[in-house]
Design a protein that fits this description.
heterodimer, A: mainly alpha, ABC transporter involved in vitamin B12 uptake, BtuC, 0% strand, B: alpha/beta, Rossmann fold, 2 domains, 6-stranded mixed sheet
């Protein structure tokens, strides 16, 4: 590895650590660093401060880190798999699947009179969203084996998204204001709605998805030249595709389930990583994107906290300029 | 002895595209150390034949493909019996696709050719690095090692893709219309390069082209598709046979 790359990794890691602590300090009540440190290391600190740091801010900062990493890595995988710089974690229709799950849960329950159905209400928003994304995973992976041309999968994913949005709109149109509002708030995304027990569920799934992504590194590098070249260099196209699709769905699907559809991070961060590291090698881009994603989502969380705006508006406002820049420069991946 | 010199052997191979039959029960052998040009009019199945030999013809149905791959022998073994990772060590392919990837250096592209031999994450050993540099030197692009592929001209990037095929260290290299984006001097240079590689490295190189002049002057043998037949003769014999004149002379437009 080049020394410049190592230097960049060290800088980004340090920056992430600094931002992590700033994220613990900043909030509706600003806490001095000494208190935060004391709360984390188990030192002398008031009970309320300890509670704020340990149970609210620490959890939220960790969620930001893992969400950022997960979305960026899945976006990188999709951009390489589809050889399309504008692909992102949601091109497969994962967010649509999750939205449908949530829309059915929030909007459908009152409409269909299922509110007294115990099994359905116990799912929770996250459960419904996760079921929705899992459905997409099964659909996409079962279809992907039969489809030779990867672009068909891209088109299927996009068409599926549009179809699902139409269904969601029907539900929205028929729904009552209160249900509609809670659905709209879900679509704005939130890093803070996760409980500790949900986080312990989310963490292993994301780590699993990241492991799959690492296992797909060599395939991703070969896929830079396209599936045909990759096949002639001994890559098992079917298995690699499946590995990448499962990894993406685990990462993006889980994040969407717990935090809502957080846009533009997965689309923009891989481009920033390519620009910074000046390489197309996934052995560098994959950890680079994960680190940058964590860092950028921490920044977004800081901004959203200080302005008290939903996270999705911040990621969009930060991400869109990058995407526009990519389109104008017409960069191929 | 036969098995070692006959790199590719087609045994009564029938190839089709959809309902159309392109080649019917054709037989031919392609030897090591020989540069062969594959000629034929547009749509006669040059690419389809190259794709079939390289195991890329996945568009055909499973059953058809298996029987087709029984009739293509590489170093005496039917393609159907060669697992994919071993195919990658036997045949390297250069497709018509133009590769433009920003931030990907020529060295890294050529290094991808080592994929069949590297570990799960693709770590390069000293030996792999040496092969990559040697491949770049063989195509005369050693000074471009750290340039990004998207800054190269068509001729240069085609050479890099050939270097990548060389780095795969296979006895067979197939190229689909490698000269199509190039100007005339570059076409000659590229084909002389292929001839040199075939002779010096004892590789079996087969490429499809529309350049009759180049094929007859620089190649050892010519394979000509005259639907549904395939004629494979040494270059001089092919010129005398009259097949070329018959197929490629412009008929008067009535």
């Amino acid at each position: 590895m080049k020394s410049k790359t190592i230097f960049l990794f060290i800088c980004l890691s340090l920056l992430t650590v600094v931002l992590f602590f700033i994220d613990l300090i900043v909030g509706s009540v600003s806490l001095p660093f000494s208190d935060v440190w004391a709360a984390l290391s188990g030192g002398e600190v008031s009970a309320s401060t300890a509670k704020i740091v340990r149970e609210i801010r620490l959890l939220k900062a960790l969620v930001a880190i893992f969400t950022g990493a997960a979305l960026s890595v899945s976006g990188l995988q999709m951009q390489t798999l589809f050889r399309n710089p504008l692909a992102g974690p949601y091109v497969l229709g994962i967010s649509s699947g999750a939205s449908l799950g949530v829309a059915l849960f929030i909007l459908g329950i009152p409409l269909l009179g299922l509110s007294n159905q115990q099994w359905f209400t116990s799912l929770g928003i996250a459960g419904a969203a996760w079921l929705g994304s899992a459905f997409i995973l099964i659909f996409i992976t079962s279809v992907s084996n039969r489809i030779k041309d990867i672009m068909v999968i891209l088109i299927l994913g996009m068409m599926f998204s549009s179809g699902v949005s139409a269904l969601v709109q029907i539900l929205q149109y028929l729904s009552h204001e209160d249900a509609l509002k809670s659905y709209v708030i879900w679509t704005m995304g939130s890093l803070g709605d996760i409980t500790a027990s949900q986080f312990y569920l989310m963490l292993p799934i994301i780590l699993c998805g990241l492991t799959f992504a690492v296992a797909a590194t060599k395939s991703l590098n070969l896929l830079l030249l396209g599936e045909e070249y990759a096949r002639t260099m001994g890559m098992n196209v079917r298995r690699s595709r499946q590995l990448i699709l499962i990894s993406t769905t685990l990462l993006a699907g889980t994040v969407t389930a717990f935090c809502g559809p957080i846009g533009f991070v997965g689309l923009a961060v891989p481009h920033v990583a390519r620009m910074l590291f000046r390489t197309a090698d996934h052995r560098i881009l994959l950890p680079g994107s994960a680190l940058l994603g964590a860092l950028i989502l921490l920044i977004c969380d800081l901004i959203s906290k200080s302005l008290t705006l939903p996270i999705n508006t911040i990621t969009a406002l930060l991400g869109i300029p990058i995407v526009v820049w990519v389109v104008i420069r017409n960069k191929s991946i | 002895m036969q098995a070692t010199t006959d790199m590719i052997r087609l045994k009564e191979l029938t190839l089709g595209y959809g309902q159309r039959i392109l080649l019917e029960k054709v037989s031919a052998t392609f030897a090591a150390g020989q540069l062969t040009a594959l000629l034929g009019r547009n749509g006669t199945g040059k690419s389809t034949l190259l794709r079939a030999v390289s195991g890329l013809e996945t568009r055909t149905r499973e059953k058809h493909r298996l029987s087709m791959e029984q009739k293509i022998l590489l170093q005496g073994i039917p393609l159907a019996q060669i697992p994919q990772h071993q195919r990658a060590a036997t045949i390297a392919v250069v497709t018509t696709e133009r590769v433009r990837i920003s931030n990907l250096s020529c060295k890294d592209i050529v290094a991808l050719g080592r994929a069949p031999y590297t570990n799960w994450i693709g770590s390069m050993q000293k030996e792999d690095e040496a092969i990559v540099m040697q491949s770049l030197e063989q195509v005369g692009m050693a000074s471009y090692a750290n340039r990004s592929i998207d800054t190269l001209s068509d001729g240069e990037s085609q050479r890099i893709m050939i270097a990548r095929a060389l780095a795969q260290t296979t006895p067979i290299i197939l190229l689909d219309e490698p000269t199509s984006f190039l100007d005339i001097p570059n076409r000659y240079e590229l084909c002389s390069l292929l001839a040199r590689l075939a002779h010096q490295e004892n590789k079996c190189i087969l490429f499809s082209t529309h350049e009759l002049d180049i094929a007859t002057s620089l190649c050892d043998s010519i394979a000509l598709i005259d639907t549904p037949n395939l004629y494979h003769l040494p270059a001089a014999a092919m010129q005398k046979s009259g097949h070329l004149d018959r197929l490629f002379t412009r008929k008067p437009i009535l």
